[in-house]
Amino acid sequence: MNLWTFLIPVAAVAGTVVAAKRGATVLAICLGLVALLPLAALATAVGLPVLALAAGAGGVWVWHRWTRSSSTVNRWGSRTRRKSGVASTLDVVRHAGSGAMRRRAAAVRPSLAGLGRRERWRLPVPEVAVRLCRSGLLWVWSSVEDVTLIFGGPRTGKSGWLAGQILDAPGAALVASTRGDLYDLTSSSRGERGPVWVFRPGLRTPSGRDVGG
Asked: In the Cβ-directed half-sphere of 184, how many Cα atoms lie within 13 Å?
């Protein structure tokens, strides 16, 4: 008896559990049958009592894991979350990836329609899209023709994220905010690309008149 006598059934049993949890019934049955093949040799090597004791311990763990009400709720949650309304990696690549945004460049910005294929694929993605997040190795983008809403609590980085979008904006940017932090973060860099205007209705002159400053 060698190490593979133990590794093969353990791997097969682990694969059976994972396949069963993911709903792949056929795969779970096949892996379960594969796990039964070396168990006969294992029972001969370690003895039937030891194998029965291990099986009993495994049965207790399974009962504890799968028969309690909390476990039932966890299984329902896992089953509901599994790919339910969640974009796969292929979906991200096709509809929200960098390549997908560049393919739509001519549609969202007609001024880029004259670019060749090579120039279009070299185009920085922030020119035509807003970066949302990262999913694994892929960045997820939202096209500039779509409305992007960002929700977050205080001190969660919203102003920094918005400042990044203002700095990346390829053309003019109209920013409506009741705070001056966005101006402080972006005015110097945007001023190098063009004039920066600030409208403050609440600013008063010494005579008491309201003006825009």
From this structure: 6
This prediction's pTM? 0.50
Q: How far, in Å, CA of 152 to CA of 158, rounded?
A: 7
Helix residue ranges, H only, the chain: 4-21, 25-46, 48-66, 69-81, 89-91, 98-103, 105-108, 117-122, 158-168, 181-191
Note the pLDDT tens digit of each residue in 26-41.
Answer: 777 887 777 776 666 6
Cα angle 22, 84, 92; round to 5: 105
Selection from 126, 119, 118 nearest residue 101 by Cα? 126
Q: Cα(202)–Cα(211) distance, rounded to whole angstroms?
A: 7
How many residues comprise the chain?
A: 213
Interatomic CA distance for residues 116 and 106, integer angstroms = 11
Pairing of strands 210-211, 203-204: antiparallel
Residue in the structure block whose two tokens are 């040799």: 41
Residue 106 · residue 83 · CB < 8 Å: no
Quickly count: other Cβ atoms within 10 Å of residue 16's Cβ: 20
Its sign, for the CA torsion 109, 110, 111, 117, is positive
**Longest CA span, the chain:** 101
* Phi then psi dihedrals of residue 189, to 5 deg: -70, -40
**Which tens digit of pLDDT belongs to each residue from 168-196?**
888 888 988 877 888 888 999 999 988 99
Helix (H, G, I), strand (E, B) or coil at 131: strand
